[in-house]
Amino acid sequence: MNPVKEKAVIISQKRIAEGIFDMSLRCPGAASLAEPGQFLNLYCRNETRLLPRPISICGIDKEKGNLRLVYRVAGAGTKEFSELKTGDILDLMGPLGHGFTIKDKPAILIGGGIGIPPMLELARAISGRKTCVLGYRDEPFLLEEFAKIAPVAVASEDGMTGVKGTVIDAIREKKVEGGIIYACGPMPMLKAVADYAARQGIEAQISLEERMACGIGACLGCICQTKEKNHHTNVNNSRVCKDGPVFDAKEVVFP
Amino acid sequence: MNPVKEKAVIISQKRIAEGIFDMSLRCPGAASLAEPGQFLNLYCRNETRLLPRPISICGIDKEKGNLRLVYRVAGAGTKEFSELKTGDILDLMGPLGHGFTIKDKPAILIGGGIGIPPMLELARAISGRKTCVLGYRDEPFLLEEFAKIAPVAVASEDGMTGVKGTVIDAIREKKVEGGIIYACGPMPMLKAVADYAARQGIEAQISLEERMACGIGACLGCICQTKEKNHHTNVNNSRVCKDGPVFDAKEVVFP
Amino acid sequence: MKLQVEIAGKSFKNPVTTASGTFGSGAEYEAFVDLAALGAVTTKGVANVPWAGNPTPRLAETCSGMLNAVGLQNPGIDLFCKRDIPHLKEKGASIIVNVCGRTIADYVEVVERLSDEPVDLLEINVSCPNVKAGGIAFGQNPDALFEITKEIKKKARQPVVMKLSPNVTDITEMARAAEAAGSDALSLINTITGMKIDIHRRRLLLANGTGGLSGPAIHPVAVRMVYQVHKACSLPIIGMGGISTGEDAIEMMMAGASMVAVGTANFHNPGATMDVLEGIKSYMEAYNIVDIHEIIGCI
Amino acid sequence: MKLQVEIAGKSFKNPVTTASGTFGSGAEYEAFVDLAALGAVTTKGVANVPWAGNPTPRLAETCSGMLNAVGLQNPGIDLFCKRDIPHLKEKGASIIVNVCGRTIADYVEVVERLSDEPVDLLEINVSCPNVKAGGIAFGQNPDALFEITKEIKKKARQPVVMKLSPNVTDITEMARAAEAAGSDALSLINTITGMKIDIHRRRLLLANGTGGLSGPAIHPVAVRMVYQVHKACSLPIIGMGGISTGEDAIEMMMAGASMVAVGTANFHNPGATMDVLEGIKSYMEAYNIVDIHEIIGCI
Ligand SMILES: Cc1cc2nc3c(=O)[nH]c(=O)nc-3n(C[C@H](O)[C@H](O)[C@H](O)COP(=O)(O)OP(=O)(O)OC[C@H]3O[C@@H](n4cnc5c(N)ncnc54)[C@H](O)[C@@H]3O)c2cc1C
Ligand SMILES: Cc1cc2nc3c(=O)[nH]c(=O)nc-3n(C[C@H](O)[C@H](O)[C@H](O)COP(=O)(O)OP(=O)(O)OC[C@H]3O[C@@H](n4cnc5c(N)ncnc54)[C@H](O)[C@@H]3O)c2cc1C
Ligand SMILES: Cc1cc2nc3c(=O)[nH]c(=O)nc-3n(C[C@H](O)[C@H](O)[C@H](O)COP(=O)(O)O)c2cc1C
Ligand SMILES: Cc1cc2nc3c(=O)[nH]c(=O)nc-3n(C[C@H](O)[C@H](O)[C@H](O)COP(=O)(O)O)c2cc1C
Ligand code: FES
Ligand code: FES
Q1: Are residues D69 and D207 in contact, defined by beta-carbon separation less than 8 angstroms?
Q2: How many helices (H) and strands (E) does chain A have?
Q3: Does A122 reach chain C within 8 Å, measured CB to CB?
Q4: Exposure of A40 by Cβ count < 10 A (0-12 exposed, 13-18 middle, 19+ buried)?
Q5: Domain of B148, in residue numbers
Q6: Does B242 touch chain D (CB under 8 A)?
Q7: Atom of ligand 5 at shortest range from CA of C267
Q8: Residue A158: which pLDDT band, with cuts at 50, 70 and 90?
Q9: By the 8 A CB rule, do B94 and B39 touch?
Q10: Residue-wise pLDDT tens for chain C (299 aa)?
Q11: Is the pLDDT of residue D111 over 90?
Q12: For residues D22 and B219, is the Cβ–Cβ distance under 8 A?
């Protein structure tokens, strides 16, 4: 499916935790095509910033034509987005990339930090048995929404919420079980998840992050190394924006 | 007097002719110091545009702390200003430069095109006898306001308003007389004015335009050539932003 | 309105092409641009064998610009000929192939391999700053540039466009070396070497250390070099560097470019090439220009 | 928090100075900046005799940058010594004098004239692209740079800081030539040669044709060159090029600059130097850095 370029209208935006914003957009074109695990490219208004910002889709409402994004203010671009008000226009392109492939197996959904938001729409989309494992540094967010959909195990670095430690600690302590893992989060977490899945002998689909320019597979800026030769690039590199962001953990060579 | 850097509030803005805008600003700091013939540096919001835009002061209301600017949309920066609404903030620095020096002689005030606005505040400030000569390309603006203050002779290139031709044609045809000329407008007009004044043997103060960066005499970007050595630059160049924009026509070497 | 231009005897329906490396092999942009409506598609640099390129991060943003250190990752000439050329032809696009290599032999191999392919021009990238071995030296030394141009010209069946690096003291010296060696046209500018430091992590942001600066930030440098080269030699020029509007393109053409390439702007606006083309037309209409040649090198 | 830095044995209270030519002789900015609060004021290039500079237009705006072709207009060393140095001293400023000339003899004359003046450093501008005769050649040819540096060093009583041009193939070659000839420090980068065309009037926008590109657009190029020079030689560096925030300054210092100069940013924000200094302090606080030397060249 071809992505669309669209002028989205901000429906609502609120701060849901320290530096974390929750934004709903009216963008019927992108919404009609969106799937869990895909992302949008958001364009900055400030013209000194040329590159679009990739943000994962956290919620899809195809009927209303709305998409929901939850993001962290990481720098100047996301800061700019966080200042948009209801009714403002935001240029975007999407949906982009290859999302999660839902398999009919008991699922473990693992989100770490700002990798948590995309797991929410995935959790909704999975109709079978599922458990969510969410890892926070400190202040939790989106927790209640997850809890409405599935059992949740929580880990936090500071130990204030749930298990003190990593998502793997939470899985072990809470004895979370399943036949497939879907995960998004920081690289060290994904590496730990991949190792865990390998040891358990189950599939893990992991969503990667890389700096991007085109977002559509043209510039080769955003690759990850892969064990096998990628059919498109003809080398052991896949494009995170196009072949991913979701990859089978077994394919990925961690840096 | 040192200029101030100030966040001005837009009080009102309206389009008064094709591509010409009339803007009032609350900027008590700059307003308290402003004199006819001085200008402001307006900063763009779009961060790709680094250089401030110099715009002459068209009206001064020291009591209210307001300044009025009338400007033409010439490019991207002035376009940006023209889109500002009441209540918006505009960064500025001013007042800048050396304005007109009012002498106690019957005055001829000559404005050409977008050089007309600064003559309005000057006309108000001159209490003695005065005649205004305004030259337009086509559509006139500010005409009624001038007419309330002083007798006005008008010239237009298309001949639709007043004398068909230049301000010099209007002066001749309308037999405008005076003991001093104050003028602002395009270079060819100022040159004609300087020649006219020389022939009449009267003083002419002319306001020049040049591309600027600092606006305060530091960068030497905005010079005009002068017959005498300038005491500051120590060469035959004066800084339009600091030594001008108003010069005695006799001093200036026209390019 | 006549938009058609010629470069080394090849004619293109309009002067707008894509800057190599920013437009893939065209297919990725088909959702946004009709490839047949472009003057030509210039493809990502291709070598004799597949290259994996540099580690990530490969990209960084700068003020009105960006740095890239992709390192010429490419699928190799075989897959390129099998997959990308037929696809572009099927879409009705004119094709400029950007060629890279580590040694003269690498380049020659690619050029020979393209002999019978339906390719309009060969653009030779001797200027990519991201390749440590070979590449860069050719683009920064007039003798090396002369040498490689001469060898390529011996074998090339299509016109050869040497693509110059801006990272030199005197761009005209390079242009004259390429001209003397028989280059049929020139293309400039490639990226300017830059660097960004992640001050929070205290390390170079790009894995490669340095990267190539592109985008509107470099436009005035590109215009200057195109102008200088246009005055210094008589080869037709494909001009690029920071073009994102029709006005930028007109400026580049007035400086002397017969054709312009749109690069980084595609990332900000996937329809940038078409917007540039429309902008050129609007300018021509506004100034009653009937043939684009009236503005090429008119300064 | 220790902000004090040293360049060639001279100590400055903090690492922020002004880029020559953007700050006049300081007096113009006194309404916005306490000159004594700066590490130093670097003054506009001064020659042995007054120069009138280029015709206008001398300035053009570009995307996140600007072009200037002022052409080193200056009042000559006599008036400079009589008026500007005493004024700066009275205000409590440390002084770096930027020196220009057409011939080696011109430079040496200025340097000798400054022997007994209360000047901290002599910054030698061999890189201004706007002077047709002399100037530019020194900055683009290592032998010429060696020669002029050596001659200046023979006569200079204050430490000599050669200011390098970025318009070269290899900046490290230039740096090493200056070092070999005895330069006490280096300053970089000067502006990158660029051009703008007025497409509506169909003519070069600047009267001089080309101008020097400065501002945020060139920051990544400046960081790269400072980094390369810092690795290639052991002289202290005054880094400049597009610095407008404390973060830009930190980046430049991490690349290897002991001191930074703020130029074009002053035009957009007359208090830019102080904002940069405050930004440096905030960064140091946030990362618990007690001495600025912890970050100089830390990459
Ligand atoms: C596929 C994908 C999905 C993402 N989903 C989310 C999400 O749902 N919520 C969220 O908060 N963040 C998400 N990110 C990270 C987000 O893209 C960055 O935080 C954001 O681009 C930072 O922009 P900035 O201008 O605020 O920061 P700056 O640091 O000023 O950005 C400078 C440049 O670096 C790039 N960049 C900086 N950090 C990252 C990063 N971590 N990943 C990719 N590019 C980066 C920017 O896009 C920009 O080009 C995602 C990243 C990717 C690749
Ligand atoms: C002392 C002085 C007073 C002025 N007063 C007025 C006024 O009252 N009303 C009015 O409409 N205009 C006035 N101008 C002209 C006004 O400054 C320019 O029209 C404006 O800067 C154009 O900016 P832009 O971004 O719209 O155009 P662009 O062409 O995009 O500007 C690009 C750059 O060129 C500079 N520039 C372009 N044209 C001029 C010009 N004519 N003079 C100086 N710089 C220019 C801009 O400042 C900017 O740096 C005055 C100029 C000067 C020097
Ligand atoms: C991501 C990226 C990849 C590039 N790859 C190539 C390449 O393979 N071969 C080449 O000759 N130039 C390459 N370039 C340089 C561009 O073709 C162009 O010369 C340069 O970016 C300046 O144009 P711009 O400012 O419009 O991007 C690349 C540029 C970018 C940004
Ligand atoms: C208007 C202007 C005038 C300049 N004059 C000089 C000069 O006299 N001598 C010099 O060595 N550099 C001169 N420069 C270069 C600056 O000192 C500085 O090296 C360059 O602008 C890069 O810094 P920036 O991007 O912060 O401006 C000038 C720059 C500008 C913009
Ligand atoms: S961002 Fe261009 S290939 Fe992925
Ligand atoms: S604008 Fe800088 S001296 Fe006038």
Answers
A1: yes
A2: 6, 16
A3: no
A4: buried
A5: 107-209
A6: yes
A7: 2
A8: confident
A9: yes
A10: 999 999 999 999 999 999 999 999 999 999 999 999 999 999 999 999 999 999 999 999 999 999 999 999 999 999 999 999 999 999 999 999 999 998 899 999 999 999 999 999 999 999 755 555 555 578 899 999 999 999 999 999 999 999 999 999 999 999 999 999 999 999 999 999 999 999 999 999 999 999 999 999 999 999 999 999 999 999 999 999 999 999 999 999 999 999 999 999 999 999 999 999 999 999 999 999 999 999 999 99
A11: yes
A12: yes
Could you tell me if A33 and A77 lie in one domain? yes
**Looking at residue A68, what is its pLDDT?**
98
Strand-pairing partners, residue B223, are: B239
The domain tally of chain B equals 2
Interval between CA D95 and ligand 6 midpoint (Å): 22
Q: Mutation target for D interface from B214, B227, B236, B238: give the one with most D CBs within 10 A.
A: B214
In chain B, DSSP assigns E strands to 4-17, 20-26, 39-42, 53-56, 59-61, 66-72, 89-96, 107-112, 130-136, 152-156, 163-164, 180-184, 203-207, 223-225, 237-239, 246-248
| Residue keyed to tokens 């949906």 | A95
Q: How far is the CA of A217 from the centre of ligand 5 (A)?
A: 4
Residues B53 and B92 in one domain: yes
Between A200-209, D137-146, D171-180, the lowest mean confidence (pLDDT) is in: D137-146
* Residue B117 and residue B38 in one domain: no
Pocket of ligand 4 (CB under 6 A): B 213, 219, 221; D 19-22, 44-45, 68, 70, 72, 98, 125, 128, 163, 190-191, 214-215, 218, 240-243, 262-265
Q: In B, which residues are within 8 Å of D59 by CB distance?
A: 51, 211-213, 219, 221-222
- Domain-located, residue A124: yes
Q: What is the CATH number of the domain that holds B168?
A: 3.40.50.80
Best residue in A93, A234, A254 to probe C by mutation, most C CBs within 10 Å? A234
Rounded to the nearest whole angstrom, what is the distance from the C-alpha of residue A241 to the centroid of ligand 4? 41
Look at the domain D5-54+72-194+214-294 and name its fold.
TIM Barrel (3.20.20)
B34-86 residue pLDDT tens: 999 999 999 999 999 999 999 999 999 999 999 999 999 999 999 999 999 99
Q: Which atom of ligand 1 is nearest to the CA of A118?
A: 8
pLDDT of residue B255: 86
Nearest protein CA to atom 26 of ligand 1, as residue:
A75
- Judged by CB atoms closer than 8 Å, whether chains meet at C192 and D227 is answered as no
State whether B199 and B111 are in the same domain. yes
Residues B32, B9: one domain?
yes
User: One-letter amino acid identity for C39?
Assistant: G
Interchain CB distance below 8 Å, D56 and B223:
yes
* Residue B9, domain CATH: 2.40.30.10
The DSSP result for D240-298, as a single string, is: ESS--SHHHHHHHHHHT-SEEEE-THHHH-TTHHHHHHHHHHHHHHHTT-SBGGGTTT-
For residue D211, the chain B residues in CB contact (below 8 A) are: none
Write down the pLDDT at residue C100. 94
Known catalytic residue at D128: yes
Say if residue B172 is in the same domain as residue B129.
yes
- D131 pLDDT band, cuts 50/70/90, is low
- Which has the closest alpha carbon to D207: D73, D117, D21, D106? D73
Q: What stretch of H or E contains A109?
A: strand A107-112
Same domain, A71 and A142: no
Check CB contact under 8 Å for B216 and D70: no
From A50, A219, A233, A247, the mutation candidate for ligand 5 (largest count of ligand atoms within 8 A of CB) is A219
Distances (CA, A) of B208 to B73, B98, C176, D68: 19, 11, 44, 20
